[in-house]
Design brief:
The complex is a heterodimer of chains A (113) and B (112). Chain A is mostly beta strands and 113 residues long. Helices cover 0% and strands 49% of the residues of chain A. The relative contact order of chain A is 0.33. The termini of chain B are far apart. The chains are: A mainly beta (113), B mainly beta (112).
Chain lengths: 113, 112
Amino acid sequence: DTGVSQNPRHKITKRGQNVTFRCDPISEHNRLYWYRQTLGQGPEFLTYFQNEAQLEKSRLLSDRFSAERPKGSFSTLEIQRTEQGDSAMYLCASSLVSGNTIYFGEGSWLTVV
Amino acid sequence: QQQVKQSPQSLIVQKGGISIINCAYENTAFDYFPWYQQFPGKGPALLIAIRPDVSEKKEGRFTISFNKSAKQFSLHIMDSQPGDSATYFCAATTHNNNDMRFGAGTRLTVKP
């Protein structure tokens, strides 16, 4: 068990560019979550998958945000036409379907300049 | 809308002292209440969690106290150590686990 893996860990991009983050969950975990965390705040739920199905996406911040989990394993979070307000840490987490324990990765920091 | 309110925002305690962080929730459908510890530049790590069918859970120096009628729960860190200095988040979710709500965090500093 290597834990939840995220990359890149840090990304600096110019405003208007697209960015993509990847998450590899704990191998036996069916559920995968994306959260956003800004400085001084707790994580904010964005979306989650159960296997390859995206079961909740209404909390994605805008239509510039999209996530995929095509084969029910790794997931990607894409932000199109980045804005300075998108600067934050994007956290991926995973869990089993049964039970509530959610394990977080170390996050991907995004800085939009 | 903030469904989980956490206090204090920051806390300074002496080594060996007791750290107490409080949280209150609004949604009575919540039935799982974890606490996460986060060090700078790292993701949150699960510390301890409780369900509302018990009023207290203890793991080592960490204890959660839960008051269902008041919709409040708290984290107590006994014999606080400098290595406990971190940001602590309370959270709450339903059994569906599909939208965990976090408090705003408490930055704990334990002075040697």
